[in-house]
Amino acid sequence: MSDKPKSLIKKSTKALDEAFIRILEVIPEVIGFLQIMISPLAIGIVLGALIYAAEPSRLGLTLGGCTAAIGLVIGVLWAANEWKGKGTVHFMSRTMATPELDDPEADDEPDEGRMDRVE
User: Fold this and answer.
1) I need a surface site. Which of 25, 38, 58, 78 has the fewest CB within 10 A?
2) In whole angstroms, what is the distance from residue 36 CA to residue 82 CA?
3) CA-CA distance, 27 to 2, in Å (whole number)?
4) How far is 92 from 33, CA to CA, in rounded Å?
5) Residue 101 to residue 78: CA distance in whole angstroms
6) pLDDT of residue 37
């Protein structure tokens, strides 16, 4: 009888470990989702504010709010599409890549055609 409680503890510990690892995998994806979603949302909010500034009335407020809502919907759809693909972390890593920093020695060569450098 003493083997059953030990095996149950091992199974429950393994399940908790797997759940914890799954949570740690999902957190960066959620952060990437939010980063992707915020870009179109911010553009929609800025355009909506410009529309409202041009027409500060109930119509302008409605059109501005609709523009911001469209930005939100586009952001959510785009982020969900990336999540279903290779993942939001993969998308954000490709977006934030800096090829200029991959080969720093290539930029150290002086430009012979530039006149603004005094040697």
Assistant:
1) 58
2) 9
3) 38
4) 9
5) 28
6) 94
Instruction: Please tell me the distance from the alpha carbon of residue 18 to that of residue 22, in angstroms, as a whole number.
Output: 6
User: Does the model's pTM come out above 0.85?
Assistant: no
10 vs 23: CA distance, rounded Å: 20
Structure tokens at 49: 């504010």
Predicted confidence (pLDDT) per residue in 26-78, tens digit: 899 999 999 999 999 999 999 999 999 999 999 999 999 999 999 999 999 99
Task: Report the phi/psi class of residue 87: left, alpha or beta, with left for phi > 0 and alpha for psi in -120 to 50.
Answer: left
6 HSE (CA, 13 A, CB side):
3
The CA distance from 18 to 12, in Å, is 10
